[in-house]
Design goal:
Two copies of one chain form a homodimer.
Chain A lengths: L1 E3 L1 H14 L4 H16 L10 H10 L9 E6 L2 E5 L5 H19 L1 E9 L6 H9 L3 E6 L5 E2 L6 E3 L4 E5 L6 E5 L6 H9 L9 E2 L5 E2 L2 H7 L8 H18 L4 H4 L10 E8 L1 H4 L2 H16 L15 H13 L1 E3 L1 H12 L2
Parallel strand pairs in A: 3-4
Antiparallel strand pairs in A: 1-13, 2-3, 4-12, 5-8, 5-12, 6-7, 8-9, 10-11
Chain lengths: ~350, ~350
């Protein structure tokens, strides 16, 4: 593990993306989200994801130049077709449009179909909350886990993002509907460790903390057993229905990489426009005090709200450099330096 | 356990509520939701909850005659004050208003503050979906579980409802953010059984399936460990912020029964008005086929989507009578028969 200054990380990823055929502006916008993900400690969708995104661009699975088109509009609701353009750019467009529409109507629902992987969903929540807005957003995905009571994968992990502003730093939830990601299973297995809590069933149908056994069975656990299974089904249907786009069972037929062709929803509220900004701050401050004031289950451990620890990681990385995996950093340097 | 015809159940609960001071119309509207909950197999908030509701009416914690007042309105958003009236009536008003506003604007957000327990949240999802609408609704509650990493209860279980229409019967998710309810712990303990999966921590901080040990520690588990803890915090903040109402830390100060003073959100979409009703049916039918076609983990077991099993229970109860607990049935008969 090394430490790289944020600006250098951002510039290097930008160069990797321009070498793969993106315009300078678009490359920088995408690279910023990747660099900020690593900066915030979400390594899986930061620098680590750059080589795969370059691969998708080169295979034509993500269209470097495609831009979203408005399909229909009705008051506070707009539907866009992402045209399989870069998922980050489409999601940024949808988020920014949601904030604009919410500034006018108090709320906005932007539905986006036929887009590609948005990388770190939390990025859009942080963006909205840092501008004083509330965001509720989710995406559907290809299948990666079984429905409750099934042994084969037919549900997506459909990450859900909820973000509200707070002066000391926003409250941002960014959760996939699987208990653990396959990335977490792999890292845990490579470290020779067990998961802290059961993460799936083995091939005999026994609940296990052994990451390798779950990778082998593909029976990764939905968050909260049957509950996450139900929640992910509803998130999928709503995303596909409101965007008039693809649901998981359609995305599974596309086979052009993770999330290609997926559907996303961005719901924004503007507390200023709604006249409730002051009340919101009281609510959030009260929650923070209440949660932070909990009795820790283990002495010395801090009880936090979603997003609270992110601010510490961010400050450390901005001061001391962003932590990178050396092998991946060298791989991205090579992608940035090629002719 | 006995079986009581649905109409008799409904009439008896209506009488219990009129005896407690409600008007005939309001008593019948509330009784219908209780009776339908038992009819659908949600016993905890059906007949079983009637004595406690009567107690709340008699203590004045729920105001029998209070009606919601409009606080503010802005396009597709409306905020109501529930005036501590019966939670079922307030939630029905909010749901019906959400469907009306959605019929005009395509979508609606109704925020309701200062209301009381809505009983079975799924009731409002079924109501919307049976009229061809999409509903996303949630409530906050008093605290009943610890934040992740804490040992004392500071989070509500904040049930979330998501419902979409389907011709064969709607898809309806109705989930609290705790892995199990205290009611489920009690029933399991009284049966001398263990929970099927860990439901909390004991007083030593060890994850356990022993319901009595969790009742003693009050360290009930949030759905999906840290994930449900985060999700419930965000649902709480959004409910309180958008309704300009109370969050869990405020509700905890009220101390007039479960959920008194809580905040609720009802988001409706009208697929007909949005022009996406046909696409929605394709999406839902495709999901149903995909999920139902999963390979069962145990031979002979059916893999279902949320709400699918409810239709079977409902049909059985309408044909053969609604299953009731004999002691509770006799208690409600006495409440209905008193002077």
């Amino acid at each position: 593990m090394g430490r790289i200054p944020f600006d250098r990380l951002q510039d290097t990823i930008t160069a990797a993306f321009t070498r793969a055929g993106m315009s300078e502006d678009k490359a920088r916008a995408c690279a910023t989200i990747h660099a900020e993900s690593s900066r915030d400690g979400v390594y899986s969708h930061g620098l680590n994801r750059v080589p795969r995104f370059v691969e998708y661009l080169e295979k034509g699975w993500v269209k470097a130049d495609a831009e979203p088109t408005l399909v229909r509009s009705m008051g506070a609701i707009e539907v866009y077709d992402g045209q399989r353009g870069p998922g980050i750019l489409n999601a940024l467009t949808a988020t920014d449009r949601a904030l604009e529409v919410a500034a006018e109507h108090g709320l906005a629902v932007i539905a986006l179909r036929n887009t590609t992987h948005w990388m770190r969903g939390g990025a859009y929540g942080w963006r909205a909350a840092e501008q004083g807005k509330i965001l509720l957003a989710w995406t559907n995905t290809e299948s990666c886990m079984p429905a409750w009571g099934a042994s084969n994968t037919r549900l997506g992990n459909n990450p859900l993002v909820m973000a509200v502003p707070r002066e000391e730093g926003p409250v941002v939830l960014d959760m996939a509907m699987s208990q653990y990601s396959y990335g977490k299973l792999q890292v845990t297995r490579l470290n020779g460790a067990q998961l802290p809590y059961p993460g799936g069933f083995d091939n005999e149908g026994i609940l296990t903390t052994d990451p390798g056994a779950i990778e082998a069975s593909r029976r990764i656990l939905s968050t909260g057993f049957w509950k996450g299974s139900g929640l992910t089904i509803l998130l999928d249907i709503l995303a596909a229905a409101l965007s008039e786009g693809a649901a998981t069972h359609d995305i599974d037929k596309i086979d052009e990489g993770s999330c290609t062709g997926c559907s996303q929803i961005f719901i924004a509220f503007d507390p200023e426009r709604l006249g409730s900004a002051e009340h919101l701050q009281q609510v959030v401050d009260g929650m923070a005090e209440y949660v932070n004031g909990s009795t820790p289950a283990e002495a010395g451990r801090r009880v936090t709200y979603p997003g609270q620890n992110t601010m510490r990681t961010r400050q450390d990385h901005l001061k001391n450099g962003v932590i990178v995996d050396d092998d991946i950093w060298n791989e991205v340097l090579a992608l940035a330096d090629r002719a």
